[in-house]
Amino acid sequence: MRLVLRRAALARTLLAAAAITATVTTALLTAFLQFAQLLPAAGGRAAVAGAPVSERTLFVTMSAGDNAQDLEERDAAVRKLFTGGLGGVPVTVDGGAYAISQRLADGRSAVVAYLDRLADHADLVDGAWPVPVPRGQPVQAAVPEAVAAALGVRVGGRIAVTDDRTKKPAPLAVVGVYRPRDAGGGYWRLAAAPVAAGGLGPLAVDRAEFLARYQLLSTVNWVAIPAADQLAGRRLEAVSAQATRLRTTEAQKLGLDTSTKVSTGLDELAGRLRVAELVTRSGLLLPALLLTLIAGYTLWLVAGLLNDQRRGEHSLLRARGAARGQLARLATGEALLVVVPAGLLGAPLAAAALRAADRRLATRGLALSTVDIPMLGAWQGWAIAVAAALCCAVALVLPAARRGRTWVAEQQERSRPTRWAVAQRAGVDLALVVLAVLAWSQLRQYGGPLTGPAGALGIDPLLVTAPAIGVLATTAVSLRLLPAATRGGVRVAERRRSFASLLGVWQADRRPHAGPVLLLVLAVAVAALAGCVAATWQLSQRDQAAHEAGADLRISRATASVPAPAVADLAALPGVATVMRADRGTLQVSNEATATLLAVETTKAAQVMRIRPDLAEPGLFDRMPAPRRLSGTALPAQTRRLTGQLLFAVSGTGTAQAFSTDVAVYLDDGSGLLQRVSLGTPLANRALPFDVPVPAGSTLVGLASGGRLEFDPFNEAEGGFEGTVAWTISGLAAVDAQGARTEVTAPTTWELDTTADQFLHLGEAKVTGLDVRYTVSIDAFMTNAWTFRLADVASAREPVPALVTPAVLAGTSKKVGDRVELGSSGGTAPLEIKIVGVLDALPSAPGAGGVVVDLPTYAGYRFAHEQLAASAAEWWLATRAGEHDRAAAAVAGQSGLAVVDREALTRRLLDDPLGIGVLLALYAAALAATVLAGFGLAVDARSTALRRSGEMAVLHTLGASPNALARALVVEQALLAGLGVLSGLLVGIAVAAAMAPALVLTAAARAPVPPALLVVPPTETGLPALALLLVALLLGAVVARRTRREVVTGLLRMGTEQ
Amino acid sequence: MTPLVRVDRVSRVFGHGAREVHAVREVSLVAAPGEVLAIRGRSGAGKTTLLNLIGGLDRPTAGSVHVAGHELTAADERRLRRLRRDTIGFVFQSFGLIPILSAAENVGVPMRLARRRARERDERVSMLLELVGLGAHARQRPYELSGGQQQRVAIARALANEPKLLIADEPTGQLDSETGRQIMDLIRAVVLARGTTAIVATHDAALLDLADRVLVLRDGRIADPVPAAG
What pLDDT is attached to residue A378? Predict the structure, then answer.
């Protein structure tokens, strides 16, 4: 041991650097592997906490029974189900019942309820909790703060309630006002249903009072809430299995009343989390593998450098008879000095790093561990740290324990590798390249690192290690190219007279630099790859959000009863730049495939639709022909109303009676969209005046109505009908706000289209302006009808120009320029389109099939073919730069609208706890790679300084100036560092280009739509590269300075050992 | 004849106080042009320190050193470097070859430092390697050569800039006796052929007969002048 310590004292700087590097490496590796272990569960817990209460609770509901005993028995039976928790996870079970028969004075339902442990879930703002009262007195109730405000009652007041069954008053005395502590929590599901249905409550009463007065016709509920912090991994699976069993088993078999219903989303949540956790684990494996790779190599390099230092001594000792065992013991002693600090400090340092990460993640609502991370580290940390330290020790001891070769043989090998060694290395390189290509092709084929059927997805080892293999293979290849680059440097330097430069490039060219350069290449490549993957993931989330939304804001009506918002109103909202109307439908592309039909105002699409540039050719919408408009009579700009008189004249013989259907005009509202305006339904031979509002700036493009001949089934007289039926609009005038009238006439281009039932003998119609006259006869006892339309639809009947996705081309076997008729899944007439362009994916469409048409053209087509006035169902908004939030807030303020907000979607995707964890891991891997490489390079620099001292002394003796020697070192380091960093960048970016997009998966383990695009972030990739370049140059400069000083001031022993 | 090397009462002390070590004590000597001067002594006798002082690699604590008319004690680092590069050739015990360079490149290093023209350099490298009998080994690297061959390369390198003084510190220390003899023969031949002065430190008594004169160094002092070899 004394010899060990003496040797260590002589090389204390190098050993200290090695020990620090080993410690940092071990700590980083330990921290990272523990982080990768903790994160999926942490993300799962966060996802559980963020899941809707219906998903993370189990809800049991049944009738309350007829009496208190019934209820007690039912309560006991339900609670018995959860005696042992749910799947082993502790469960909180609360019960509650609400009466469905109480009504407030204004007709709304009063949700009178009792809730278990209410005081634990609500804060009493005023008054007291209710207690039983003698019969005849109003029942005491505690009222939610919001309900008290809505009803305008306070403690001491009364709420007038009527019992629906008895129609008798059942007033409540307000004795308390409470505020729910966690209004969105699972507990409040107990009375959520009647409140959601419009009832006011829960108006909490005492349990005994409830049983005595309200139990009959009441519903009793229990909500079982599993401990959220344990809902992860296998426990969640067990909970899910148990919940599914309870949900699907007949109530009687569970010992419950037959009216029981069990509902839970725990199984769905478990399934979703299972896949999401798998995606996270696969995502974490990449940085974990990269970090393990770089950490392992750093330890190996440090061990190699120390062994290099000892090589001469070991050869000498071996030559003088030292046995392998003795050398191994010596090396073990020295190795212990290096690795013991790593083994001892690795876990506590890792714990400190994890605590720091935990604090950072806490700001994003993620807790790495359910318990405090121990200061000294968890046992897993100790296991990893000790294992890493042991590996390092083995790497240090192994060369000394190997069968020894002669000093000269070793030096010869180092001076110029043998052919066998060259062939061996080439073979390893080739194997790596073959493996990388195989992994890459498989990754492309599967589109991600997860394979297997939907229910049994798993991480494919080859696919998940593909990027790491890619980094290794391309690094190996780049190292083989390094000599060519340095040889070029030698050729350049040889032409110059500077000895320092030549010596520098000689050293760079001929020294075995694989160690530090490989570390540099690996570190820069790992950092660049991690940066690229992280940036690619982030961009993909934004792209997915933009694709899902389709526009900055996409609005639709929340329910059909909500009136359509006016474009002008939306356009006037703050921050809104453009409003584009759209309609949506489904088209049948083939027997198996459907496509989303999106009819948009194509003239605005380029400004509003968020189509990623690579998904569509530039100016795609310019290829769309100008929107087709129906011709008609333009109403004066200020028109507000249409007035006139309808006359439905019927003359003829027969028992059948003639009726007119609704008479309507079709107006182009100025944007090409058609609006059907009903003028009224005239009765036979009676004039019907009309006065209807119309949008300003409209054009009258059509008139439609129809007739019907109806037989009286009880009239046995023979004879059908024969005569003339005529519709006349007289005095049609446009009226402005001031009442000024302008006569409106029908365009001369209008043509009549008639559709009639089979047995109707309809003579040719005679059209004069706004007068349509038919001769009609029928002789059968049946009701027959016909419709007519006056409009100019000749051009509107033509196929609609459309942009389609490749899936539609494939499904129809068509190409650009072709026409194709697509069935409408909605049962309407088929749509014939003319394909004018292709876009790779249709924004806002869930599937691969998509068809985009111009909305006015589509509306004209539908009008021409089906007499339908296609209208807008969606409003797509583009917001002004920097004003999105303002616009979103303004839109949110409009009632009755459902909004898809691109920015909100982006935030949701980017803030996904699991995603953030992976992102953090990637950045941590990049940072760790940079730090580790920095330490590795420092050790190498010190080792180089020691190794070169003899050589430098010789050159100094021969007349080389210390400055020239220092310059040579700087040139050497600069060349190697530059080439290493450049190679690393190229390797990282090349591997990222090949694999990064395939590594991005959605939480559902699917490839994202649109496909992820590679992002090479200049800062994230450039900064580590620049930092390492600077570190390498700085260390080179430090070594050079030290060498210079040593050469100048040291005593030179001529012929010093090299 | 003016001596090429004149060492006058030179001392060299390392360390201070109790740790003070007198490596060389008031040594005086001269070496004439074309003379082979051997310095003999045990390990630690001060041979290398004395050679360092003569070679301008170290400065004496006292006394003066003149080489080829230059007073080394007063010379600045640049002048010393120039002197080492142009006037003195060095041969080391462990050869001191740069392992990554071929034999020819090693020989060419001093000429590169002296900024000699490429053609002249190449011609002279070839000539020197032929001189030391290694014309066929020009492209081989040090560890592909035997010890004797490496020392021949080192001698060729030492002669690259046609030095007036050749300093050799235990040039045969790592060689067997036969090879050591050949190396000393080579040094002797070169000195005779070019009129170069050689100062050779050795503890090998068998080689002393090749020197013109032998100085014995003991505890840093010249103990006993030995007559020149016949």
Answer: 74
pLDDT at A888: 92
The minimal CB distance from A951 to the residues B98, B110, B170 is found for B98
What pLDDT shows up at residue A878? 94
Please write the tens of the pLDDT for every residue from B37-63. 999 888 888 888 899 899 888 889 999
Give the whole-angstrom CA distance, residue B89 versus residue B55.
Answer: 9
Output the six-digit token pair for A144. 């939610």
CA of A408 vs chain B CAs: smallest distance (Å): 7
> Do B100 and A511 count as a contact with CB atoms less than 8 A apart?
yes
Spatial neighbors of A297 by CB under 8 A, at least 6 apart, are: A518, A519, A522, A936
Please state whether A547 falls in left (phi above 0), alpha (psi between -120 and 50) or beta. Answer: alpha
Of A499, A511, A1051, the CB nearest to B112: A499
Q: Residues A928, A290: contact at Cβ < 8 Å?
A: no
Which is it for strands A200-204 and A110-115: parallel, antiparallel or unpaired?
parallel
Chain A neighbors of B99, CB-CB under 8 A:
411, 415, 951, 1058
**How many whole angstroms separate alpha carbon A254 and alpha carbon A80?**
10
DSSP codes joined into one string, A941-957: HHHHHHHHHHHHHHHHH
Spans of chain A below 50 pLDDT: 1049-1058
A499 touches chain B (CB under 8 A): yes
Q: What does the pLDDT read at residue A852?
A: 94
Looking at residue B228, its pLDDT comes to 46
pLDDT of residue A805: 93
Q: What is the pLDDT of residue A259?
A: 82
Residue whose pair of structure tokens reads 């921050």 in the numeric block: A575
pLDDT of residue A184: 74
Those residues of chain B whose CB sits closer than 8 Å to some CB in chain A are 14, 48, 51-52, 55, 57-58, 77-78, 81-82, 84-86, 90, 92-96, 98-101, 105, 109-110, 112-115, 141-144, 157, 167, 169-170
Residue A502 with chain B: CB contacts under 8 Å = 112
How many pairs of residues across A and B have Cβ atoms under 8 Å apart? 90
- Min distance B96 CA to chain A CA atoms (Å): 5
Q: What are phi and psi of A718, to 5 degrees?
A: -75, 175
Interface test with chain A among B88, B98, B165, by most A beta carbons within 10 Å: B98
- pLDDT at position A1016 is 92
Nearest in space to A912 (alpha carbons), one of A1002, A1007, A1016: A1002
DSSP string, B161-224: T--SEEEEESTTTTS-HHHHHHHHHHHHHHHHHHT-EEEEEE--GGGGGGSSEEEEEETTEEEE
| ipTM confidence | 0.89
Contact between A531 and A994 under an 8 Å Cβ cutoff? The reply is no
What is the reported pLDDT for A447? 67
Distance CA B203, CA B211 (A): 13
**pTM for this predicted structure:** 0.73
The alpha carbons of chain A give a radius of gyration, in whole angstroms, of 41
Which of A299, A283, A613, A290 lies closest to A467 in space, CA to CA? A290
* Mutation to test the B interface, candidates A1052, A1054, A1056, most B Cβ within 10 Å: A1054
CB–CB of B96 and A499 under 8 A? no
pLDDT confidence of residue A555: 92
Query: Residue A994 in contact with residue A470, Cβ under 8 Å?
Result: yes
CA distance linking residue A1000 with residue A440, whole number of Å: 15
Q: Residue B230: pLDDT above 70?
A: no
Token pair of A940, please?
């190498």
Burial B193-207 (b: 16+ CB within 10 A, else e): eeebbbbbbbbbeeb
Q: Which residues of B74-99 are buried (b: 16+ CB within 10 A; e: fewer)?
A: ebeeeebbbbbbbbbbbbbbbbbbbb
**3-class DSSP state of A759:** coil
Integer Cα distance of A403 and B196 in angstroms? 48
